Amino acid sequence: MLPELILMIGAMALLMLGIFAKRERGEMILWLSLGLLALAGVAVTYSSGTVTLFNDSFIIDAYARALKLLTLIGAGAALLMSLDYWREEGGLKFEFPILVLFATAGMMMMISANDLIALYVGLELQSLALYVVAAFKRDSARSAEAGLKYFVLGALSSGMLLYGASLIYGFTGSTQFAEIATVVQPSGVNLGLIFGLVFLMAGFAFKISAVPFHMWTPDVYEGAPTPVTAFFAAAPKLAAMALTVRVLITAFPAVTTQWQQIVVFLSIASMALGAFAAIGQTNIKRLMAYSSIGHMGFALVGLAAGSPEGVQGLIVYLAIYLAMTLGTFAVILSMRRDGRMVEDIDQLSGLSRTSPMMAFLLAMLLFSLAGIPPLAGFFAKFYVFLAAIHAGLYALAVIGVLLSVVGAYYYLRIVKIMYFDAPAERFEPMPAFLAVVLGATGAFILFYFVHPAPLVAFAGSAAKSLF
């Protein structure tokens, strides 16, 4: 538990430091928070084997380590990218990085949860911190509205999840995934247990913003401060998806055909809404919200396969999605004129002439999000569709490919605006930290096809530990 302890004890120490410091120490606390995330990452990397703690309610295995590393990278990059934004907005309040640390600790607990109670504790620790950061700009009506919407709908989803968990406990007599799996046999599936599973999955679908529980996503993405939106789009999505996979694969292997139908529905609905609803968007943060809904739909294709190959494809997909999202938000955070953020897609017009390198890297990220070869996004979709075909889910794979083509339209429209429209006024120079994140993610997306083996092997060993 060293990584979680580092984050929790470190966050509480930084909270004391922030409160008792004589003057505002926001930036110093942000750098110390980044150090804690890096330290937790090292602790995750240097652990090995499979260990269970607290009477088997907390598990550390290759799968948990892989997803924790990706979550820590997402949280660290989001914090780094926020630095210049808060400077421009009048200074960084020390509470922001501390709330991110608490949320990240909750996510790591979710990823290692091996019990319904541990799952809920991790989920609430993450959610309570996220509600606050969504409404972090207290003088902004949009930010306050985003926080309130997220809180109200999040509380509803937590209630549904808790109701589902109590039904599952009632019908199986246990909260531990391994014991639930032994009690639930294909021959003796009762209706109450299926109801519990449906409510549980409704709660998970809200956390990954899968249709029809996506309604909060566009409003919260648009209203929250942009670095908070970047954080929302990266780390919490990964943790919630990791949790969903672990619960379904380890606690309900005997009723795979039942939950597979739900996952297939969530996947198709999310891919369809992500493809069609984003077409009319003019605000780039709302467009990224619908894009993330669509991408969670594609990731669920890997889970629907219900096989080690499918989970491997899903982990690769999440890693590549993380890189694409962070890179795109690095550009969105640098869309600034006269000291103000601009969010309209049309403001990118002619970017190829005013800032050619930024336009090129954003175009590559958008092509990758659309799944165009030979970029990393193409391979991400290829792995999950291949797993679906091997599992006999031909219709799901075909629908996914068709909706991927529809979704390509709105990504290509942004490329057309950047390269063929009349140039708008030049943006302010891109801050160094954003340039580093954009350069690193752009290089990963462009050159992934040269040597994809390390990520595939990393995901493969993680997936094997679940089965």
Q: What do you see in this structure?
A:
Helix content is about 75%, strand content about 0%. A two-stranded antiparallel sheet has the order 1-2. A two-stranded antiparallel ribbon has the order 3-4. Strand 1 and strand 2 form a beta hairpin. Helix 16 runs antiparallel to helix 17. The longest helix is centred in the middle third of the chain and has 32 residues. The chain is globular. The chain starts with a helix and ends with a helix. The relative contact order is 0.10. The model has no long low-confidence stretch (mean pLDDT about 90).
Brief descriptors of the model:
467 residues, mainly alpha, two-stranded antiparallel sheet, 19 helices
